[in-house]
Design goal:
Oligomer: single chain
Distance between the termini: 40 Å
Largest sheet: 5 strands, parallel
Structural class: alpha/beta
Number of strands: 26
Strand order of the largest sheet: 3-2-1-7-19
CATH class of the largest domain: Alpha Beta
Number of helices: 9
Radius of gyration: 22 Å
CATH superfamily of the largest domain: FAD/NAD(P)-binding domain
Strand content: 25-35%
Helix content: 10-25%
Bound molecules: flavin-adenine dinucleotide
Length: 420
Amino acid sequence: MVDAHQTFVIVGGGLAGAKAAETLRAEGFTGRVILICDERDHPYERPPLSKGYLLGKDERDSVFVHEPAFYAQAQIELHLGQPAVHLDPAAKTVRLGDGTLIAYDKLLLATGAEPRRLDIPGTGLAGVHHLRRLAHAERLRGVLASLGRDNGHLVIAGAGWIGLEVAAAARSYGAEVTIVEPQPTPLHGIIGPELGALFTDLHREHGVRFHFGARFTEIVGHDGMVLAVRTDDGEEHPAHDVLAAIGAAPRTALAEQAGLDVVDRADGGGIAVDAALRTSDPYIYAAGDVAAADHPLLDTRLRVEHWANALNGGPAAARAMLGQDVSYDRIPYFFSDQYDLGMEYSGYAPPGSYDQVVCRGDVGKREFIAFWLSEGRLLAGMNVNVWDVTGTVQQLIRSGAPLDPGKLADPSVPLESLLP
Ligand SMILES: Cc1cc2nc3c(=O)[nH]c(=O)nc-3n(C[C@H](O)[C@H](O)[C@H](O)COP(=O)(O)OP(=O)(O)OC[C@H]3O[C@@H](n4cnc5c(N)ncnc54)[C@H](O)[C@@H]3O)c2cc1C
């Protein structure tokens, strides 16, 4: 039972943490809610940082999860600009960087992820960037604008979502862009080679150069400035600035220090949680990018680094903290916008898991839905410049029903009619 004298503490003020705090109040929790974040800004959403905000189209105010006044109104106590540096599960306390000790009855770890760093010479040069925080986006925006003005060159390590979105933004400023990617196609580990080629063509049409099958070995500089990037195939790419977009690592330090179960990095990392998002300590939960959760539907442990998982996982953890029966089984979902291409992807189909990819619609015009199948069952779907189909795609995945690939590919057959 949860009573009014309890204190629920949330470490991490991103989308998952902010939504969890909101949910605790919406579900009627009247005890103390304390939200701790090492960033000084109120909780904000990160997708605009590589899209509208980076492009200068979205106002700064538009990225925040709630208006600042919301927290006081909802009696959510904020400790901003303060890292939680020590967690003692036996004493049920968290210590902040300034020494403040906070006792909790239940705790949520929503510490997110941080950009992976390149481990090569030259990463300390001033023109080497990462993109995770508002301050990074603000700095990068200025960099892209000046590269555009001066015909400057941005070299990006990694053709993942962030690398591609920043490439699109950089081209819109007029910067020269080269992407270096070890795999033969962009987004290789996520959507496989078949659909990865779509993004190669899209970006090439917009003037991005790709250098596939290679890795950075050195960032060459002079007087603190970036001059070039060297790759392991002996090539040298002129560069004024570099973006390292080689993925994110879950921020598990606090969980590890506290002795909670953590998944091996080789298996994706993250704080191990069950389907109710509870860690190996019954009073501690984890949600968002940092949580590697048992997925009841997909029957695997999954760490999902996407907006929708923070949006829904934070509230699910909050309900579990309140003693509700939670089985978090959302189908993984993400979206991206690059140039005039908008897409949504639902499901989970890394290379090796599927045996067939079929498309419905006009792939050439980039208006279609791609389906990844295994033995006729739908694992994932991606709609490109086609909208309002996500619900049906997710129902088809959830049903697990065998599908006729011919009908899936035929736009004259309504998708809904394929539901069992
Ligand atoms: C540039 C960018 C673009 C993206 N675009 C998309 C997109 O288009 N579509 C999509 O689906 N997803 C996108 N994502 C992913 C999405 O933003 C993340 O999945 C989401 O932010 C995860 O939210 P979170 O609350 O779990 O973690 P975070 O947003 O990382 O928040 C965690 C917070 O906890 C803080 N913290 C960590 N450790 C401590 C500590 N010890 N003490 C105190 N505070 C701590 C962190 O500083 C951070 O503020 C994007 C991500 C980035 C970086």
